[in-house]
Amino acid sequence: MKRSLAVWLLSALCLAGRAGDPPQVTVDVEHAIFVAEKDKFIRVVRIPITVNGSIDKLVVSQYDNGDTTPFYFTAPVGLPYFEAQVDCEFETRFQLDAYNEFGWFRTDLFTIRPTEGLERNFQTAVSSPEAAVGERSCTVYSLNTSKVVWRGTVISGQPDWSFLPSGIYLVSTTDTAGRRSTRKFVKR
């Protein structure tokens, strides 16, 4: 009897030592991008997340236009982002709950601002004082197809992307010092 109690205690201690941690999730709102237009008012937004630990389930609470009761949906796990539909005229707040076998983690509420600013002039959307000077590598992604549509080096000034068809794009630039800048734009 004493031996079985000792074996049980030793087994319990070993299992307790192997226990994992609840997941940790960080949201990167600054790099959220718009990937599609559902209609005149609804856009699909892709919000990057960083996960520490494993996730079995990711539940998103979405509060539209100041609502106090959220709409819940489950986002796919294993991706470095989640996607949601937002109204382009109102703020949308989100909160994530990540679950695994060892517990759960809840992020703070975060806000995605109205997307009307996305509808702006093509040239002003990609130009900035720091991007206009010096050599930089550029990659242009189509957010309509999620593919690279142009990659190259720009020596100085504004690149000529007049060959691009109408659509929503993301341009990522890296200067010679390694500083990276990302901007989204609409070309009509």
What does this structure look like?
By secondary structure, the protein is mostly beta strands. The chain contains two helices and 13 strands. The strands form three sheets. Strands 4, 5, 7, 8 and 9 form a five-stranded antiparallel sheet that branches. Strands 1, 2, 3 and 6 form a four-stranded antiparallel sheet that branches. A four-stranded antiparallel sheet has the order 11-10-12-13. Strand 12 and strand 13 form a beta hairpin. It is globular, with a radius of gyration of 23 Å. The termini are far apart.
Features of the shown structure:
mainly beta; 13 strands; globular; single chain; 188 residues
Average pLDDT for all residues: 74
Radius of gyration: 23 Å
What's the β-strand tally?
13
Uncertain regions spanning at least 5 consecutive residues: 6-18, 116-133
Based on helices, strands and strand pairing, what is the structural class? mainly beta
Summed up, the helix count is 2
In terms of DSSP E residues, the strand content is: over 45%
User: H/E order of the elements?
Assistant: HEEEEEEEEEHEEEE
Question: What composes the largest sheet?
Answer: 5 strands, antiparallel
| Helical residues, percent | 10-25%
| Terminal residue distance | 80 Å
User: What would the principal axes of the Cα set say about the shape?
Assistant: globular
